[in-house]
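STRUCTURE REQUEST FORM
Protein name: Sulfotransferase family protein
Source organism: Celeribacter baekdonensis
Requested output: structure tokens
Priority: standard
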Amino acid sequence: MWRTGSTALARCFLSSDDYLVFYEPFHETCGSPKRIKLARQNQSKQTQELRHPTWTGGYFDAYLLTDPLTGKPLWRLFDRSSTLSTPYRTRPNPRALAYLEACKRVADDQGKRAFFGFCRSGRHLQGMPLGADGSGFYLYRDPHSQFRSYGWPQNEYFLPCTLIQLLSAKATRQVVLDLLPNAISRVALFAFLMRRPGFERQIALGRTLAKQLTPRTAYQMFYLSHCTTLHSARQAGLPCLTMNDLIDRRAEIEPQYGVDLSPLRRNTPVHDDADRYDAWESELRDRFGPQIPALNPPNHTKA
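Status: completed
Returned output:
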């Protein structure tokens, strides 16, 4: 998920010539060459910090490459529904799977391994085809620190995106509707989502909804997504690791993947207001645990 250290991890794989990194393959930037080039400009300082002799572009440059089978650039094959509409459905849209297969073909064509750094995996993890060697893991962070890192309400990206993602899936929609203020029209909201508006209109709705949330409700929305995704990773059979786990297990993981993890830094859990967050989690679990198994111990985890 977002704000777990995934960008730092992606940089470790970018420093290896054995991998072609597909950073956040479901990010809205991946479907727009204009956005990709703008992201490259904005990341120029990070490019210098990476000091990799052959890497000259931004994190999303791989999506400008051409699929050898279809002859189309990857950004044209991008499945836009994967950004906000489908992450919390159990299985990816067939278009999303075809797009991921195209990414893998591009890597194979260059004699490299494809590294997918998903930050919008949601429940898709149960339907993602792993590599032949089954390699992969789910990176997560303690929920208190992760939520605080979102910078809500000043940051108008992470929580609004999460709201729309949860509202777009049957499995989580009713919980979100029950948590939203009563003044919001459920009928109008559902009708809007059924029209499948574009990303900008969806995120605008998410921002409008997020502004009306109390700190308790905002955290509970986030925690629902945190637990649902972590539970899906476990059901998919993926090892679930924190950044600190990666650092502690460097001697094991570096030879397995052939990358240098020395640039990684530890995440220090935030314990301010821990009792308040714990109380909000318990309230959510007591209210919705019977219908959302992911909320129930031992499915949710602190680290």
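Reviewer notes: Residues 215-235 form the longest helix (21 residues). The chain is about 50% helix and 5% strand.
Form closed.
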